Amino acid sequence: MKKFRHITAITAIGVTASLALAGCATGGDAGGDGGDNGDMGTITLGYLPSWTDGLSMAYLAQDQLEKLGYTVEMEEMTEAGPLFTGLAQGDFDVYPSAWPEVTHAAYMEQYGDDLEDLGAYYEGAVLTIAVPTYMDDINSLEDLKGQADRFDGKITGIEPGAGLTKATQESMMPAYGLDGEYELLTSSTAGMLAELDTAYAAEEDIVVTLWRPFWAYNDWEMKDLEDPQGAMGEPETLNFIAHAGVSDEFPEAAELFGKIKLDDDQYGSLEGLVTGDEYEGDPAAAVDAWIDENGDQFDWLVTE
Questions:
Q1: What torsion do the CA atoms of 99, 101, 103, 107 make, to the nearest 10 degrees?
Q2: 71 and which of 42, 53, 201, 262 could share a cystine (Cβ 3.0–4.6 Å)?
Q3: Angstrom distance (rounded) from CA 243 to CA 174
Q4: Positive or negative torsion for Cα 304, 55, 235, 272
Q5: pTM to 2 decimal places
Q6: Nearest of 87, 75, 71, 82 to residue 35 by alpha carbon
Q7: Residue whose C-alpha is closest to residue 262's, from 163, 84, 121, 52
């Protein structure tokens, strides 16, 4: 099924990224000539492959940086906490898709003096609690109260260290009186999507933690539950966050990151190609295809 292939594509791409850690990716791997690869220095990108915004932007950034003449190393992480710790310590140079205003606000506050914001590439990212659209009578977080038996007393979540998990446990559930009625089950993004796929196929009741932008909304017909108390936080931006001093060390790279801007359609097509079936396991080829289809829309894009 397409949905399962889309879920497993996250794992397949992660394996590709892990292999890249053994050495520096080449310009040919990124789908371009790569210029004088390495002359500009080496930049390490830390990212979370289960969060496909970060996965997509990491490979777009790799392509663009290599075309500028940088050597790029890809460092795959599983949790946001260790990623931000490594970023602050200089183990990574750039996290290409941070959510600094709400989701990762605690990390930004904790490590703020050791971090540098290189700019936002996307506006209006949100954390959500969602159900399938066939659940006609559940439209608001308020509607979950007293309905735990329908969901086996669980909200299906993602990684325990995710900002989405924190917002759900510490803000949303207490705000709507759900913390004594429901348990937030955490595992992984792929695990959550597998549970969603199973329930959806049988048209069973399920409530999950999601976020926008995310390709899952293209594969399943889902609706975000209304949040009249604003417990999941306000919309935020997706940013390139670096360790302090990166803009001085790599000024051309910092200038590029500051110029990258994507709207919903542009971002959605990028994520769809990187995580979809056609280029499964070959994200660099997916980026090449995206540039071929969308390159004429951007004045910041490095094509050679």
A1: 90
A2: 42
A3: 34
A4: positive
A5: 0.71
A6: 71
A7: 121
- Read off the pLDDT band of 162 (50, 70, 90): confident
**Does residue 7 contact residue 197 with C-beta atoms inside 8 Å?**
yes
- pLDDT, one tens digit per residue, over 91-124 is 999 999 999 998 899 999 999 999 999 999 999 8
Q: Kindly state the tokens that stand for 100.
A: 């600094």
Alpha-carbon span 22 to 18, nearest angstrom: 8
CATH architecture of 125-224: 3-Layer(aba) Sandwich (3.40)
Helices (H), 69-114: 80-89, 105-111
Token pair belonging to 149: 């038996």
Q: At 147, which amino acid appears?
A: Q
Tell me the CATH number of domain 2-122+237-297, given options 3.40.710.10, 3.40.50.720, 1.10.10.10, 3.40.190.10: 3.40.190.10
Per domain, the residue ranges of the chain are 2-122+237-297, 125-224
Tokens representing 169 are: 């446990």
pLDDT digits (tens, 9 = 90+) for 33-85: 334 445 899 999 999 887 888 889 999 999 999 999 999 999 999 889 999 99
Domains 2-122+237-297 and 125-224 share a fold: yes
Nearest to 116 by CA among 238, 251, 241: 241
> In the structure encoding, which two tokens stand for residue 157, read together?
């979540």
| pLDDT > 70 fraction of the chain, expressed in percent and rounded | 87
Taking the CB of residue 170, how many other CB atoms lie within 10 A of it?
A: 12
Write down the pLDDT at residue 36. Answer: 44
Rounded distance between C-alpha atoms, residue 82 and residue 161, angstroms:
9
